[in-house]
Specification:
It contains 9 helices and 13 strands. It is an alpha/beta fold and about 300 residues long. It has 2 domains: about 200 residues, Spore Coat Polysaccharide Biosynthesis Protein SpsA, Chain A (Alpha-Beta Complex), CATH 3.90.550.60; about 80 residues, no CATH class. Strands 1, 2, 3, 4, 5, 6, 7, 8, 9, 10 and 11 form an 11-stranded mixed beta sheet that branches. Helix 7 packs parallel to helix 9. The radius of gyration is 19 Å and the shape is globular.
């Protein structure tokens, strides 16, 4: 038996959080602890948990942040606490995730401490996020097309399982990303260190489907996300920060041009076009000059 801790980051979504925690408590393979990271919520999240008597459960640990540190900061705090308190594995997810009852059991059928594993985020019969299977870089959008186990390009922090061994080698997620692509960076860091990343296609977590659309430019197909301007800023900045850190010359030959293509797609398909432009160029500026952390307020986005 392994000591497995769930880490859930929440911000102002108390009812969704209750659904998530309830599903974690009902797992067929029991968790040792459930750590809730409250990112300085202002909607009465803590009082709501107390009212529903969740904090009376000895398995639950509540860590209160004094400010909103984003997903990156929340997961970093939870992972650090869990491993410092003796867990073998950390299973991470957002507050709007609802794992199926056997999700952890199915995941642990494959998990080893030597690689990273992830549950499959689904929305009905679709995948909640586009999944890229290796080695063919096959892009999958349907739940039933994901194998029971497959190596993948990267995983979101949504049913993401990592081990103490990996933590001791890699350390924590990079809090400077705030939100967006902090999970991609952690996967790339792991791969550089020799750890592989796998999706477990029978471990399901229900999650809202990302609002995505394909965009073709000069024969190149991109999967684009519909994003409000403040999220466009982080998506742009963090993609470029990752490219500069990991992709070498491809940052300039592929990632930068693809980023402009995403802006063009947004201007054709999304509202608030002037703000989208501002958010994009703010992201480019901050990536070039390595301005990190929570910055959308600075840019009035």
């Amino acid at each position: 038996m392994k000591n497995i801790t769930a880490v859930v980051v929440t911000y102002n979504r108390k009812k969704l959080l209750l659904n998530c925690i309830s599903a974690l408590l009902e797992q067929s393979l029991k968790l040792s602890k459930i750590i809730i990271i409250d990112n300085a919520s202002t909607d009465g999240t803590i009082e709501y948990l107390e009212k529903n008597q969740l904090l009376d459960n000895p398995k639950l640990v509540l860590l209160k942040q004094t400010e909103n540190t984003g997903g990156a900061g929340g997961f970093s705090t939870g992972m650090k606490y869990a491993f410092e308190h003796g867990t073998d594995y950390v299973w991470m997810m957002d507050d709007d995730a609802v794992p199926h009852q056997d999700a952890l059991e199915q995941l642990m059928k494959h998990a080893t401490p030597h690689h990273i594993y992830g549950s499959l985020a689904v929305n009905g019969e679709d995948t909640a996020w586009t999944t890229t299977l290796l080695p063919e870089s096959q892009i999958i959008d349907a739940k039933n097309l994901v194998p029971e186990i497959s190596e993948v390009q990267s995983l979101p922090f949504l049913g993401y399982l990592t081990s103490k061994e990996i933590f001791e080698r890699l350390g924590l997620p990079d809090t400077s990303y705030f939100i967006a692509a902090d999970d991609v960076e952690y996967c790339l860091r792991a791969q550089r260190a020799g750890f592989k990343t796998y999706i477990c296609g029978q471990s399901f977590i229900e999650h809202p489907k990302s609002d995505r659309y394909p965009f073709n430019l000069f024969g190149k197909k991109l999967i684009c996300l519909k994003l409000v301007p403040w999220k466009r800023y982080y998506d742009t900045r963090n993609r470029l920060l990752i490219a500069r850190k990991y992709y070498g010359i491809k940052a300039f030959t592929q990632t930068f041009p693809a980023s402009f293509a995403r802006l063009f797609a947004a201007l054709l398909n999304e509202p608030n076009k002037l703000m989208q432009i501002k958010a994009f160029f703010a992201g480019v500026y901050d990536a070039v000059f390595k301005k990190t952390g929570k910055r959308h307020d600075y840019w009035n986005l």
